[in-house]
Amino acid sequence: MGIEDEIIKNKAPPLSVSRTTWYTSLGPNGKEIISRDAWGGGVYKEEYEAVSPCAYATLPQIRLEPILKRRALELNPEGICYNTEVTEVKEESDWVVVGVIDKVNSEPRKVEARYVIGADGGRGHGLDIIVAPILERMEIDDRSILGTI
């Protein structure tokens, strides 16, 4: 997509996201219960590097969306759909066909895209539309995996 350099430049520092820790409380008297390496840090570094051509980066959605929007506008200024709801995603060989409904005039239409990015602030809207076909193709029936994708 041509955005890796900008993401790497804006990512959270590795030391701040390479471990996860559980505490009894977030207050001043909270005690650490356990801490472990996470998200490509420590013992997971080589594992993460082996499965992706890109470096692992943690970037909050509020920082990622402007990068994605700038790149989308560079590539296709007329191709951004505002005030729309995704109703279906159909994977083709090298692209996807996305069914959308315009929320202003309730008009349904189809949009072809190379990428689908679900940026809904972690609310999970439309997750089944995008992920369920992938799980079906992988012959995974347990929808509880949706929480870890």
TrEMBL record:
What is the protein's given name?
FAD-binding domain-containing protein
Q: Which InterPro entries match?
A: FAD-bd, FAD/NAD-bd_sf
* Single GO MF annotation: FAD binding
- The residue ranges of the FAD-binding domain are 2-124
Enumerate the Gene3D superfamilies for this protein: FAD/NAD(P)-binding domain
Signal sequence coordinates: none
Concerning Pfam families, the annotation shows: FAD_binding_3
Q: Which UniProt keywords apply?
A: FAD, Flavoprotein, Oxidoreductase
